[in-house]
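Pasting two entries for a bug report.
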Amino acid sequence: MKRIIISLFLVIMLSACSVVDLVFPKRTEIPPSGTVLFSDTFSSTESGWNTWNQNGSYVIYQADGLRFFVDKPHLDFYSKPGYTFTDVRIEAEAIKIAGPDNNTFGVICRMQDEKNYYAFVISSDGYAGIIKVVEGVYQLINNASMEFAPSVNQGEAINYLIATCQGDKLSLDINGENQFSIEDGSFAKGDVGLIAGSFEEAGVDIYFDNLTVFQP
């Protein structure tokens, strides 16, 4: 009888352990601050970014970079590598090759799909903004309109962008200067990406290189 009782006790304990394992999964460790989560120099066309070439506009790998050419007015193109991150600090270099200075280009974080994401953008005539896109509707969340940003290198120049999405905090640094630090909790995680777009004038031509995603 004792042997049966002991055996039954062990079965109950093992069953309890199994339930505990199911109810309390192991916690995912957050990488230390500064850990590189993803990086791309665009030297390989197999690194996973969306590309296309249609009706005179394109997003293509070219000369160890990712080039966006927007050949229609009032149009934005984006590209993403296909990952899911929570908190990120995205660093990238961008240069206007040609086209109008009245443009937009920058980086994306927490992209759910093509209609839901945050975009951190500048223009070649010296403006900047943080945009929230919800179900395809664009909303500037740093201000009512794009703000003039003295730190933007205007015209055909290289700009170094840093976008940070950490908890509800969103910030944009341009060439080493903080431009915006705001809070918004609409999106908690998603893909990273790059974006370029036109306003009234087509022919926006932007080249991105040396993108790195860090744990902030």
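Entry 2 (this is the one that rendered wrong in the viewer):
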Amino acid sequence: MSAARIGIDVGAARVGVAVTDPDGLVVLPLTTLQRDATNDTDISQVADLVAQREAVAVIVGLPLNLDGSDSASTQAARDWATRLSQLIGATPVHLVDERLTTVSAYRDLRDGGKNARQARDFIDQQSAALILQNALDTERATGRPAGVRVGGRKPRHRRKRDDVAKG
């Protein structure tokens, strides 16, 4: 059974895509898609990737301000993730905080000796990879999926017996 996951960085013009290996251990930048807010072809392409890779989850970055409030792009990312979730059905889509991932991607680019003009696609893919890696790290540390599931609530967890007695 596959444990592959797909990470997404939704922008106004482009969508960065990253994937894990089939075991869900290694994150790799994959591609950059052109954003298509009119026909949602970018969403269809991601849905095709989910099916091809038998992904068990999709992680979409949620662009928040540094103080945690919504940014100008937050609702667009939520809407994009909702449309993807409706298209792919049972595969869960989670929104996760993506603060500072683009800054880190630019740093990686600069450390690699390239400038932003040379590698816009790299930035989008690398941002998606960082979003996905952060989500995997959170899941490994907590034993729970990162972020908030689209179209639903956070995954439910059993309360400890002491918590039930108190609450």
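Dev reply: Rendering is fixed now. As a check, the viewer should reflect this: DSSP finds five helices and six strands in the chain.
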